[in-house]
Amino acid sequence: MNANETIRAGVREWFGLAVLALPTLLVSMDLFVMLLAIPRLSTALHVSSVQQLWIIDMYGFMVAGFLITMGTLGDRIGRRKLLLIGGAAFGAASLLAAFSRSPAMLIAARALLGIAGAAMTPSTLALISTLFQDAKQRATAFGIWAGCFTVGAIIGPLLGGVLLEHFWWGSVFLIGVPAMVLLLIFGPWVLPEFSNPNASKLDLTSVSLSLVAILSTVYGLKELARNGWEVVSALVMVFGLIVGVAFIQRERRLQDPLIDVRLFKNRSFSTTLGSMLLYTTLSGTTMVYVAQHLQMVEALTPLRAGIAMIPGMISATVGFQLAPLLARRIRPAYVIGGGMVLTVIGLFIIAMVSSTHGLIPLVVGFSVASFGGAPLVTLGINLVVGSVPPERSGSAAALAQTSNELGISLGVATLGSLAAVVYRYQLSAHLPASLPQGTMESARESIYGAAAVAAQLPGPEGTPLLDSARAAFTGGVNVIAGLSGVLFFAAALLVLTQLRQVPPVGSIEGGEAGK
Questions:
Q1: What's the distance, CA 443 to chain centroid?
Q2: What value does the mean pLDDT take over residues 171-193?
Q3: Which of 98, 394, 445, 462 is in Cβ range 3.0-4.6 Å of 126 for a Cys bridge?
Q4: What is the domain range of residue 231?
Q5: Given a cut of 70, is residue 4 above it in pLDDT?
Q6: What is the mean pLDDT of residues 242-271?
Q7: Residue 114 region, left (φ>0) first, then alpha (ψ -120 to 50), else beta?
Q8: pTM above the 0.90 mark?
């Protein structure tokens, strides 16, 4: 007991966690403030539709592509060093984005922001495992870290809205500058350095293969989700998967690989990582459609839609803090599995939402699902990072974050396509025969197209079309939420059976998190 007390974190370590929260908040806020700023910056910079998509997607592409490389690089050169380099680059790229004078300049700035974000995130997670040696404190710290993402999602739209109301569009990018200044000032003082002294040089071939594999796969998935089935997009995705297989084969042969594929033989590691990927795929896609439902079916403004999602963000934040406390007395498998069952209940509530009285059930379902998923996120990260040797925690953290990026793209491409099929099928049965063929095709394409067509119809003629489109879109949301609930329930059973040997957090039984 006394030995355990000597490794408990003190004020300095908790202050270090507060410093690490800065980049976490910023990475979370970036997407939300970007979406708010798009209309104004598009007008100011004369952005084309294609350039607009690249401005939005470039950040996510770079984060996904560089996470694994940066996680391993931090293990080699030092996690604090890489975090500070990433923070300085993020601040500089924020200034570049804020004062961009052309779409190309802004796209380049967004690419730099993504690379810097990829450098910061795995280093942040790995440094938490270094700061907090006590298992109970470490789980709590991961819960606070995860909560920073939802806090960023809450304050991002609100702060971005205020800035856009009083200043120019570039002001939203300046949010990151003072935060990065604080990171650079206090980081060297409160954050410990950790690197693997026995690591070999970075294998550039592995780096190249991982970048090509992830970027090609994510790009192909996003294009398929956005434009439907296209040969070129499908070929790009398949190419990325083939390169990914080649990457894995190379890693198996290397003595000091970019990713140690042997980690997947660890049952805690592989089960948790797979469950987190599935959670992001299912719940992340459902959240995207919930946000669209609030605006297109419930007819809320973007700000009001953001406010309607705040209860879900708050419930997730509460879950992030509660899960580590419960896991001190209850085995993580039961805390995570029980939470996943709650998420299933929330998804089934969303699956029963109607197009006429859906606001309250939608908010309740989203809140229940978000609360239930919190244990998987916070305890899952603790299991993934805690089940590997300290010198590999950076690459393990990068894998956890990469699964999130891939999960969202995969979910939107697969479940999004399913929702689109349901929408077109249900709407086709209710389209007025008097509509011109071109107009009918626009309405079938998406609910946004149907809303545009309805607005052009004279008098009350557009109301039945818009009502039918809203009902069809809601039908798509119902289907993907119901299917997600079924799949997630199966995943909950897998977690309960595969992770039941993992002892409560901080328990002497079994040592660390189920190694």
A1: 30
A2: 85
A3: 394
A4: 203-257
A5: no
A6: 80
A7: alpha
A8: no
Q: What is the 3-state secondary structure of 69-108?
A: HHHHHHHHHCHHHHHHHHHHHHHHHHHHHHCCCCHHHHHH
Reading the block at residue 316, the tokens are: 């997730």
Characterize 290-306 residue by residue with b for buried, 16 or more Cβ atoms within 10 angstroms of its Cβ, and e for exposed.
bbbbbbbbbebeeeebb
- Are both 392 and 337 inside the same structural domain? yes
The dihedral region occupied by 435, where left means phi > 0, alpha psi between -120 and 50, and beta the remainder, is beta
Q: What is the DSSP string of 289-329?
A: HHHHHHHHTS---HHHHHHHHHHHHHHHHHHHHHHHHHTTT
In a domain, 441, yes or no: no
Tell me what pLDDT residue 118 has.
84
Domain shared by 6 and 31, yes or no? yes
Instruction: Taking residues 332-352, report their average pLDDT.
Output: 92
CB 484 within 8 A of CB 107: no
Structure tokens at 123: 């280093």
In a domain, 449, yes or no: no
Task: Note the pLDDT of residue 56.
Answer: 73
Share of the chain above pLDDT 90, in %: 10
Average pLDDT for the chain: 80
Q: What per-residue confidence (pLDDT) applies to 255? A: 75
φ/ψ region of 502 (left if φ > 0, alpha if ψ in -120 to 50, else beta) reads beta
**Region of residue 322 (left: phi > 0; alpha: psi -120 to 50; beta: else):** alpha
Q: Which two tokens stand for residue 17?
A: 């966690």
Q: State whether 179 and 327 are in the same domain.
A: no
Same domain, 174 and 213: no
Of 320, 262, 267, the C-alpha closest to 500 is: 267
What is the Cα–Cα distance from 121 to 123, expressed in whole angstroms? 5
Evaluate whether 249 touches 261 at the Cβ level (below 8 Å).
no
> What six digits make up the tokens of 90?
């993020």
- Residue 102, φ and ψ in degrees, nearest 5: -155, 160
**pLDDT at site 504:** 79
In one-letter notation, the amino acid at residue 482 is: G
Round to whole Å and give the CA distance between 152 and 91.
17
Say which residue, 256 or 9, is predicted with more confidence.
256
Coarse DSSP helix, strand, coil percentages of the chain, rounded to the nearest 5 percent: 85, 0, 15
The reply to whether 171 and 213 lie within a common domain is no
**CATH number for position 186:** 1.20.1250.20
Say if CB 59 and CB 34 are below 8 A apart.
Answer: yes
Whether 27 contacts 152, CB under 8 Å: yes
Q: Are residues 145 and 15 in the same domain?
A: yes
Same domain, 246 and 293: no
Of the candidates 307, 319, 314, 313, the one whose C-alpha atom is nearest the C-alpha of residue 359 is 307
Distance CA 44, CA 41 (A): 5
Per residue in 405-422, pLDDT tens? 677 667 766 787 788 888
Of the candidates 265, 111, 81, the one whose C-alpha atom is nearest the C-alpha of residue 184 is 81
- Per-residue pLDDT of 32-88, as tens digits, reads 677 667 667 777 888 776 677 677 777 877 877 787 788 778 777 788 888 899 989
